[in-house]
Specification:
single chain, about 160 residues, mainly alpha, 3 domains, about 55% helix, about 10% strand
């Protein structure tokens, strides 16, 4: 975790339950001591999300910083631009970073592996049904052949799962 103010490795996170949900502030020891020399966590939360100009309005939707402080919600996408400077510490403390880094794409061949596993699972279910039929009919030769095929399919499924 990083400090919400300076970005250095944080020593501690402070969390408080509010009507809008849990609020967490992550601060390194140096920033906590500079901001709150008395050391109490109540002081941290009493100033958390208190903005210099709480009546500043978004030009697109008219939402104010005070609205955000009360509800935890912004009015529109333009609010992020209008309140950028005031939101940076909040976003950094909640998400750890300011920039979204995206989701890792599935590895090459994932679709083919999925199709293979799906086909093997279907074969396994069909073989299990056929094994029960062979057992009920007392056909030991067929039963052993089907059990061998089932073991091979289980082995391939295990191999596909480890790829």
């Amino acid at each position: 975790m990083q400090c919400a103010l300076c970005g250095s490795p944080a020593a501690r996170s402070y969390t408080r339950k509010t009507a809008a949900g849990d609020v967490t502030v992550t601060l390194c020891e140096k920033c906590r001591e500079e901001l709150y020399p008395e050391g109490g966590t109540d002081a941290i939360f009493s100033s958390f999300l208190v903005f210099e100009d709480a009546k500043k309005k978004c030009p697109a939707c008219g939402a104010t910083l005070d609205d955000f402080r009360r509800t935890g919600l912004l009015g529109c996408a333009d609010c992020y631009k209008a309140f950028r400077d005031e939101l940076i510490p909040t976003v950094r403390s909640v998400q750890g970073k300011l920039r979204h880094e995206g989701v890792q794409q599935p590895s090459a061949g994932a679709a083919e592996r999925y199709d293979t596993v799906r086909r093997l699972a279907d074969e396994k279910a069909e073989l299990q049904d056929r094994i029960e039929e062979a057992r009920a009919e007392g056909d030991d030769l067929l039963l052993h052949a089907l059990e061998d095929r089932l073991a091979a399919i289980k082995q391939r499924l295990a191999e596909e799962g480890n790829r």
